[in-house]
Design brief:
It is found in: Membrane. This protein is an all-alpha fold. It contains 16 helices and no strands.
Length: 358
């Protein structure tokens, strides 16, 4: 079962090629984004390693059980509720981002409520399934989708519209001091490992560590391509006026002999699958964490009702903000998420050291 660890990490890395991470990096491209990317690779990899190493010392145990065994009830229960909301927010932000994308490129005449409602329905359907079934879905989805994404990245870099001069010009800003927002956003690509909080019940973390060296390699390639490929198409100045830079880049590509001429439609199709998967996983883990703090949530009816309320609130929130306002909110959320992630990793690793020394 160790392979599922890498599918979950790959899901998070691949999905954020086109969603919220590149927007933050592009916004700060003249203010330290490149140095932030270079810093985020060792930081994200180290956090992933420490958390995986820590969880490997708790075989077949999930985060609620670990916290229950190491913290008093009045501490671990509120903390689990807080973490649950963080996970659910992550899925909700992906839902909103992709709803905007679908409306822009696929269904311009459809209402956002309808598109978001479809995502909420799929999210809830998947989130209340068994944990093992989500891992199987992750494997099938990523085995199909990831090669297509790699093909599109390769095709983009081979395109006549891709100008390496823009990349060289961007590299001139490498030595600008990093900024916190860019580091927080870039490290988000590596955060798939954190799903071991629940998936550790089924994943053999010790075996996963043997192949952990692939994580920084994949993260480096995906992070650099998510930042530099759109710049190669539009230049270091024009890229700042584009909300979804990777989608615009993909829309510049054509497959002359393909059954779908516009590459962007192929990309969107597979990203819809990955967004469904991401939402199912994040809402499922959020619900499982909440069950660790609130016993009544273990009833299926309560769990579904809670997720339905979350879905309705997500749609209401989406209708209250435009896309640029939403992008700013996501940036603040990245900034808030990063120290929470660090705190959780340190906590689990210290608990694992205590367990090892007992």
């Amino acid at each position: 079962m160790a392979r599922y660890y890498f599918f979950i990490i790959l899901m998070n890395m691949t999905l954020n090629i086109i969603l919220n991470v590149p927007m933050v990096l592009v916004e700060n491209r003249f203010n330290g984004s490149i140095m932030s990317i270079l810093l985020s690779i060792p930081i994200g990899s180290l956090l992933a390693y420490l958390f995986t190493k820590g969880m490997s010392r708790f075989p077949k145990m999930d985060l609620p059980t670990i916290l229950e065994n190491n913290l008093p009830k009045y501490v671990y229960k509120p903390f689990l509720v807080f973490l649950s909301l963080m996970w659910i927010a992550s899925g909700s932000f992906a839902l909103i981002s992709f709803s905007y994308l679908i409306k822009t490129y696929i269904m311009p005449e459809a209402s956002l409520e309808l598109i978001s409602g479809l995502f909420v329905f799929v999210y809830i359907y998947g989130a209340v399934r068994q944990t093992a079934s989500l891992l199987y879905k992750a494997e099938i989805t990523m085995v199909i989708a990831f090669p297509v994404v790699l093909f599109i990245i390769f095709k983009a870099m081979r395109s006549d519209l891709f100008n390496y001069v823009h990349i060289v010009r961007m590299i001139h800003f490498t030595w600008e001091l990093p900024n916190y927002s860019s580091v927080a956003a870039a490290t988000y690509l590596f955060i798939g490992y954190i799903n071991l909080a629940i998936f550790n019940r089924y994943i053999d973390s010790k075996k996963a560590l043997r192949w952990f060296w692939t994580v920084p390699i994949l993260g480096t390639g995906i992070l650099l391509s998510s930042f530099f490929v759109p710049i190669g198409f539009f230049g270091i100045n024009a890229i700042g006026d584009i909300i979804l830079p990777w989608l615009m880049s993909a829309d510049s590509l054509r497959m002359q002999f393909g059954f779908i001429e516009r590459t962007v439609f192929l990309l969107i199709f597979f990203y819809v699958l990955m967004t469904f998967l991401f939402g199912m996983v994040t809402w499922h883990i959020g619900l499982e964490l909440l069950k660790g703090a609130v016993q009544s949530m273990k009833k299926k009816t309560w769990g579904r009702s809670f997720l339905l309320i979350v879905g309705i609130l997500t749609i209401i929130f989406q209708l209250q903000v435009n896309h640029r306002e939403f992008s700013s909110i996501v940036k603040y959320w990245f900034n808030f998420r990063f120290p929470v992630e660090v705190l959780l990793v340190i906590m689990v690793y210290l608990f694992s050291l205590r367990r090892q020394n007992v």
